[in-house]
Write a structure and sequence with these properties.
The complex is a heterodimer of chains A (313) and B (96).
Chain A: H1 6-15, H2 28-47, H3 49-53, H4 62-87, H5 93-101, H6 118-139, H7 145-173, H8 177-196, H9 208-213, H10 221-239, E1 249-251, E2 256-258, H11 264-274, H12 278-291, H13 293-312
Antiparallel strand pairs in A: 1-2
Chain B: E1 8-15, E2 22-30, H1 33-44, E3 52-57, H2 69-73
């Protein structure tokens, strides 16, 4: 009898651009890589609610407040889509939450920076969500079915996030001189941390090679970073603001902007837990998990009661 | 069920418009049917994606496995007589 090599079958599927589904055989490292990437992505959505949540009660108008609430609610939903996508690979929700709450799991370094002014909410929507969308548009074609489908949904919902951010930046940049200053200050602080979101340079990115080989990612960190800068530079100019990078210039030869690298030592240090808000974010998550305990207990008890009643009926 | 795993896993199907099929759109955690419905509404229909929801416990779904696709689905390929284009229809008999 002819034996089929499962690994060959897996490779053949990838080569044909077919999706890998939860019940398909997959190499253990592919599974591990996905669990790590998707759960980190989910954690980032959940922790990402905190910097913006900080401004919900202080939004400058009812309109701004409604929009911000809707956006933060979206981020929570995105976290849930991603957690279930990761669960389809065999990890439990509890294990993932535990890793987040104990500080074992990573999430995007960007959310360890503080939101000091209303302009930061604008800068986050415009730059941070802009960078996230650039990454997620690529991930829509990721080789793992549940991840790819979650990304399609997320991208559809997230297109408003970036626009609302840019709207805030426009209002401030064309407002009073103090407002414009606020916008410039936010741009100064968020520019480099946003560039870090694409991950370390390709030459020192430990996970990139496999991610590209397995078509989990379709483009490298540096390619995405360059595309983001090309898109964003024009938007900075429109606002009449200046990016905090003297080297940011159009390069006709490479048909893209030259730019300065962010401080990668800072990046490593924030990832290690030494960012301005790391402790605060973890504490917030832990508190809200603890404070929600009675709700979970009540829900379990209610669920059991319902089950018994439906059996008795 | 794990205490912190936030309930059982449920699959969500949305019907976009009356008369159309229910399409799978994702899954969620909930402790009971009612909560599953409410969570599905919050999670999957924030932008008018549909008008009706079906929620099913994931553990209740019976699925074929991908490895069996051959023995399961391939036999239909040699039954071309199942398609209308297999048959010759005389001219002049109107629409059929």
């Amino acid at each position: 009898m002819e034996t089929i090599n499962l690994e060959d079958l897996f490779e053949a599927k990838l080569a044909k651009n077919e999706m890998i589904e939860p019940k398909d055989w997959m190499p253990e490292n592919y599974r591990k890589h996905l669990i790590r990437q998707i759960s980190q992505h989910a954690h980032s959505e959940i922790v990402g609610m905190l910097p913006e949540g900080n401004w919900i009660t202080r939004a400058p108008s009812l309109r701004a407040k409604l929009i911000l609430l809707a956006k933060v609610q979206d981020e929570g939903g995105h976290g849930l889509y991603l957690y279930t996508a990761a669960e389809s690979l065999g990890i439990t929700r509890e294990e993932m939450l535990d890793a987040l709450l104990t500080g074992k799991a990573k999430y995007s370094s960007i959310f360890n920076y503080p939101t000091l002014s209303w302009a930061d909410v604008g800068a986050i929507g415009w730059l941070v969500d802009g960078a996230a969308i650039m990454n997620q548009v690529m991930l829509q074609r990721s080789s793992y079915g549940p991840y790819s489908r979650a990304m399609v949904r997320i991208c559809k919902e997230e297109s408003f996030h970036q626009r609302q951010g840019y709207e805030i930046m426009t209002q401030l940049s064309f407002g009073t001189s103090e407002q414009k200053e606020m916008a410039q200050d936010a741009l100064n602080r968020w520019w480099y941390p946003t560039l870090m979101m694409f991950g370390p340079p390709d030459v020192e990115s430990p996970n990139s090679e496999n991610a590209i080989k397995w078509r989990i990612k379709r483009e490298t960190n540096d390619q995405l970073r360059q595309r983001f800068i090309n898109q964003t530079a024009i938007q900075v100019e429109y606002l009449g603001l200046v990016a905090p990078d003297k080297n940011l210039k159009w390069n006709e030869k490479k048909q893209g902007y030259d730019y300065s690298d962010p401080d990668w030592n800072e990046f490593k240090s924030v990832i290690k837990g030494n960012g301005i808000c790391n402790k605060d974010r973890l504490l917030s998550r832990n508190n809200s998990h603890k404070n929600g305990e009675w709700v979970r207990e009540a829900a379990i008890a209610y669920g059991k009661k319902q089950e018994q009643e439906s059996k008795a009926a | 069920m794990n205490k912190d795993s936030q309930g059982e896993l449920w699959e969500v199907f949305v019907q976009k418009k009356s008369g159309q099929p229910f399409v799978h759109c994702g899954n969620l955690h909930a402790y009971d049917k009612e909560m599953a419905l409410q969570n599905a509404r919050d999670l999957y229909t924030r932008r008018g994606e549909g008008m009706s929801l079906w929620i099913v416990l994931s553990s209740s779904i019976v699925a074929s496995s991908p490895e069996d696709a051959g023995s399961f689905f391939e036999p239909s390929n040699d039954k071309i007589y199942r398609h209308p284009t297999f048959y010759q229809i005389p001219d002049g008999i109107g629409h059929m």
